[in-house]
Each structure stands twice: as C-alpha cells, then as structure tokens.
Design a protein that fits this description.
Chain lengths: ~260, ~400
C-alpha cells in the first residue's frame, strides 16, 4: 500500500499546499513544520514554474516571488531532505510537466525517491499523456496523482480505476483561487469514483474557510487548501509560519 | 493503456488540465466530421473567396530579382487578404467550425494583434461574442490593432502577468477557457497548443501552399526551389510548406526572430537557441533555462515574440526536411525598408524576417532557380514602431 494512504487513515485528511521558496525556503520549511504540528495529514509542496497555467492570481504571484528569490529545483530537493529528518507524514510535489521533463524525468524522480517525496501532481498531465512519466514514477515508487474535474463526464471511471495515491478532485471550473461558492455536483462525481476504486479522494480548488473545508471533506476523504494559505504568506512574509499554523489548525479542527 | 494523440514524431500531444480534455475531444470529433463534410467545405471556400479575397496573388518580384541578380523571386501575397494577414484563413475555418458546434463565444490570444483582429472580424461576421487576450506590452506596441478589435465589437483584455507578451496572452486565454467551456471556443491563432489545434490550424492554412503550387505550375510550369516563411508559432510557415513536404526538391526555410542575436538573451529563435520541453499543451522546442523555466524572449516583432514553436515544425527540423534560420531585428528592419523601396510593398515586420533571409540567399543562387517568400501580412501596423527604431519619434 502507498504511504500516501496513511494520510487518510485517521478520519478526514487535511492537505495544505505551499509554494516552495515564497518568500524563501527557510520560511517554507518553517511553515511546513507549523502545518504538521497543527494537524496537516499530507503536505503538497509546489515547485514554482514561470508560467503556471492552472493557477489563479494568488498562486501565480507566489510562483513569481519564489523564482525572483532564486529558488531552484535542486534547492527544493535539499529543503525536503532536511525536512525529512523530523517530518514523517507523506509529502507530494505539485509542479508542471516541463519542470520534471527539463530536469530529466529519471533524474527528477530518483531524487524524489531519495529525499522522501511520495507523490507527484502535474496539472498539465491528463490521463492520455500519463505514460510520459508513469513508468518512471513506478520505478521509483512515487505515486502519480490523477486529477478529475467537473468537466470529466465519461472519463471518471477510467481515471479512477488506474488512480494511485489519492485522487485530486477539482471542485469547480477555472483556475486555483478562493471562491465564495462551489456549485459542482461533487456527490455524483464521488459516487462514480467510489464505484471504481478504493483510492482516497481529496477535493481542492476554491476552498478557503473552515466551513467550506468541512463541507467539501464531507463529500470525500479530504480537503486541499492552497490560495488561502499563500495569501497569508504574501501578507506576513517571514512572520507567516505562526499565522499559517493557526489557520491550518482552524481548518483541520473543522473537518 | 493510454492513448496520446496528435503526434509529429515525439512532438505534439495534449499536455493540458483535465478540465479541458473533454473540450478538446469535442473539438477533435467535430473537426473530424466537418473536414470531410461537403457543405462545410463549400461554406468555407465561399468565405475564403468572397469574404477574405482568396486566392491571394503569387507576384513575380521582378525589380527585386534584378536587383539581387540571382534566383527568381515570387511573393505570396497573404498581406492582401482581408484584415491584412494570413491569420484570417485559420480564423474563418475555426469560427465556422465553432458555429457548427453551437458555440456562441470566441476567445483568442494575440501578439501583434493580427490574429485578434482576424478573430474579432470573424466574430462580427458570424454574430458571435469575442474576447481577445493581449499582453499589456503588446497593447502598447500595437495600439492601433487594439482599437481595431474594439471597433469590431471585441473586448480586449490586457494581460499583465509574466512578461506581458504573447506567451502570457496564451496562458491567460487557456485559463479563461478552463473557466468557461460550454459556450466558448478557444480560437488558437497558430499551429501550437494541444492536439487537435496544430492539425486544425495547419489544415486551414495549407490553402497557402496549395495555391502556391497551382500558381507556380501555371506561371513557370515547375515547382519552386525554395519556400521561405517567418516562424513564430509557425502557422504561415506550415501553411506555406505543407503541400511541398513530399516534394523533396523544394527547400523549406523557416525564418526565426533572432532579436538582438542568437548569442544574446534578447532573442526568440526557439529552434536555434531552445531545447525540447513541454508547455502550452505540447511537446516541442522552447526557450528555457536549465530548470525548465520558460525564458523571457524578445523580438522587435510582437508576432514572433514567442518562446515555443509548433510541434510539426519541431519534427520537420529534426528530420531535416525544413531548415530554420535566425534573422535579427536589424536585418528584418532593413528588409522591411528594402521591400517598400524596391517593390512598393510594405511587409509586416514578421514577414520581413523571411524577406531578409531571401536577401542573403537569392544573390548566391543561379538565375534559373526560383524562390517563393510568403509575405504573411502587411506592414502598416509596424510603421510607427520601425520609425521609432530608426530614431524618429512618430506616434499613431
């Protein structure tokens, strides 16, 4: 069984997202430790990309700040290696296909395995293209996470049957970012997922309050929150870790 | 087993968010149906001929030929099309397809503004809503085209993210498409992006090489020795090359924007300075750093200022079927001025990149040789910028 499954073993999972290197890697590492201390079950670490086409303005800003600050894929691997000395919950990378491909897919995934990364989320890699990275992910024991969207009609069963780690269910149309309302019929999507796999399912995109997190996690096995955390980091910069910890606690407690 | 589609060798594919997958599958299914539909083809031909003014002329540039003293030079006059560029060919095809699919709204990215103007034009003609994404930097470089799009009833959204140029306009149009799919068709302007766009756009632009071939056989009774076209994403180039790909005697030469030179960072010559990557839905060549971050590219030409190139070009490059040469800003500006003074034709600064390479190779070729340069667009839009490049402070 995948190590990621352990994140879903004790009730609903809370999954925070953070862009590595915004404003610097020391702050990122401190935020991760605060998130773990305050109940996060799995950490999603974003490797910044110059042109993050699936992101809304908040995470776009974080990517830009991180890259301007000089963060690189190598420096992020080092940070994860350090974090792994005291953090045991599953951690996954979220980035774009070119970051992996350009680094050398084999070299990237063997480094993931070495530093203790458990999964990989690539929002620009749909089911049809997963052969690009799947065989190498398998070789190094890194789960390639599948995404399912509100527009996935007719594709859900096929994606779910081959899913590993967890399924990332995109709550609504559009890019990442906070939304006042989520109107997708998530229950019927989750129903099809359940009929086809035992792999857990977490919902993300647009979740920013404890109430939304509770509602979303109610449909599935967990909730993913990104932009709302990034906004705190943008506001408090190097003083962000404590604020992020408090916020994560409020979200986890709500589940 | 998965099933990757739309490959040219290893290039192409569909590297896009899951949210868009059913939309591109729907588009592919519709296209596969309509491309063989007689009614659709009849309607499209009528639009090409009656509305866009096709076929475009294949003009023998006699003065230029004599002046250079080498190969015989023909100009494929895509600049004479309605809206002033080859972009209308693709747009009329996609707009008609979108209409058949029941879409009521077109979105598009634009660099120089030519594709935006063409999309706004087709939307006006077909009674569709239109939103155009344009890098804020480009809205300044091409203010007249912004006004033109608004005049045609389109909404122009300046994109402020990243380098505020063409690549950011593409990213923003993709983001917009993920948020509104039901009634919206993304009218992509070049032979790039996820499958089926590189194929659809190529097929609609292939009218250029089909006409060149017919016209050349009628005028000269033989095929040309070389076909030259500028390459940004590569739509006028693939259109100019396509029907000559099986004719191995015809050299196919794509002219890339080298900006201030391929040994500087201020360049957009993807094939000459980039390497293989995955971006904007496709595997192809991209200008990027060692970590795969897309490079901020530069060219005097807003239409060639793009860090990638269409996947079919990447394949033509690797197989050696086509050559891709760099042309600097300075060379392009000289060619812009040369064609104006020699033939009385002001080419788009994009097309001037192809003219510039012809100025280099034509004198070296024998008089019996024939080259065709595709003048992809007209240069009225560029006059103020070129004047400023030459130190004259004029404004539109």
């Amino acid at each position: 069984m995948s190590k990621i499954a352990s994140a879903f073993a004790n009730g609903k999972a809370f999954i925070p997202f953070i862009t590595c290197g915004d404003p610097d890697l020391e702050t990122t590492a401190a935020c991760v430790r605060e998130m773990v201390r305050n109940g996060a079950d799995l950490i999603e670490l974003g490797i910044p990309f110059s042109d993050p086409t699936a992101e809304g303005p908040v995470i776009q800003g974080a990517n830009l700040r991180a890259l301007s600050g000089g963060v690189t894929t190598d420096r992020i691997f080092s940070m994860v290696r350090d974090l792994r000395e005291d953090i045991s919950i599953p951690m996954v990378f979220m980035t774009y296909a070119n970051v992996v491909f350009s680094y050398g897919s084999e070299r990237f995934l063997s480094s993931c395995a070495q530093v203790g990364i458990d999964g990989l989320i690539l929002p620009d890699l749909p089911f049809e293209e997963k052969e690009e990275f799947l065989p190498i992910c398998r070789k190094y024991g890194v789960d390639l996470i599948s995404l399912i969207a509100p527009t996935s009609a007719g594709r859900i069963a096929r994606i779910a049957r081959e899913a590993e780690g967890f399924i990332y269910l995109v709550s609504s149309l559009g890019v990442t970012g906070m939304r006042s309302e989520i109107t997708t019929d998530l229950a019927s999507i989750v129903k099809v997922i359940r009929e086809n796999t035992d792999v857990p399912c977490a919902i993300g995109f647009g979740i920013s309050t404890p109430e939304q997190a509770r509602t979303m996690a109610g449909y599935a096995d967990g909730a993913i929150v990104g932009s709302a955390i990034i906004r705190l980091i943008a506001q408090y910069r190097r003083q962000a870790p404590a604020k992020v910890g408090e916020f994560v606690k409020s979200l986890k407690d709500a589940l | 087993m998965t099933n990757s589609k739309g490959r040219f060798g290893i290039y192409g594919g569909q590297y896009i968010p899951e949210t868009l997958m059913n939309a591109v599958i729907e588009l592919e299914t519709a296209y596969e149906h309509y491309k063989n539909d007689e009614q659709f083809q009849t309607e499209l031909s009528a639009l090409f001929n009656e509305y866009a003014g096709r076929p475009s002329r294949l003009y023998y540039a006699e003065k230029m030929t004599k002046n250079l003293g080498g190969a015989k030079i023909y100009l494929k006059r895509e600049d004479l099309n309605h809206t002033g560029a080859h972009k209308i060919n693709n747009v009329l095809g996609q707009a008609l397809l979108a209409k058949k699919m029941g879409k009521t709204r077109l979105i598009a990215e634009t660099g120089a503004g030519q594709h935006g103007v063409a999309t706004a034009t087709a939307a006006a003609l077909m009674g569709m809503e239109c939103v155009v994404f344009m890098g804020e930097e480009d809205t300044k470089r091409q203010a007249l085209n912004v006004y033109r799009m608004r005049l045609l009833g389109a909404e122009v959204i300046p994109v402020k993210t990243g380098t505020a140029t063409l690549k950011d306009a593409v990213s923003e149009a993709m983001r917009e498409w993920t948020s509104r799919i039901d009634d919206t068709h993304y009218c992509l302007g070049s032979v790039m992006g996820p499958h089926p766009f590189p194929t659809i756009v190529r097929d609609f632009q292939a009218v250029i090489s089909r006409e060149i071939k017919e016209q050349m056989l009628a005028k000269e009774g033989r095929l040309p020795d070389a076909v030259l076209a500028c390459v940004g994403g590569g739509s006028n180039a693939i259109g100019s090359f396509y029907h000559f790909i099986p004719d191995k005697s015809v050299r196919l030469i794509g002219c890339e924007a080298a900006g201030r030179g391929i040994d500087t960072f201020e360049t957009a010559a993807t094939m000459n300075t980039g390497r293989v990557g995955i971006f904007h839905g496709m595997k192809s060549y991209f200008c990027q750093d060692e970590y795969g971050q897309i490079a901020p590219v530069y060219s005097i030409s807003a239409g060639l200022d793009y860090p990638g190139v269409g996947p079919e070009h990447a394949w033509l490059h690797d197989t050696g079927r086509a050559e891709y040469v760099p042309v600097t800003d300075e060379e392009a500006v000289c060619a812009f001025e040369y064609l104006a003074k020699t033939e009385g034709i002001i080419p788009a600064i994009e097309s001037a990149h192809a003219v510039a390479h012809a100025l280099k190779i034509a004198p070296e070729m024998e008089k019996e040789r024939i080259i065709v340069i595709t003048v992809s667009g007209r240069g009225d839009k560029d006059c103020a910028a070129i004047a400023r490049y030459r130190g004259e402070e004029i404004y539109e």
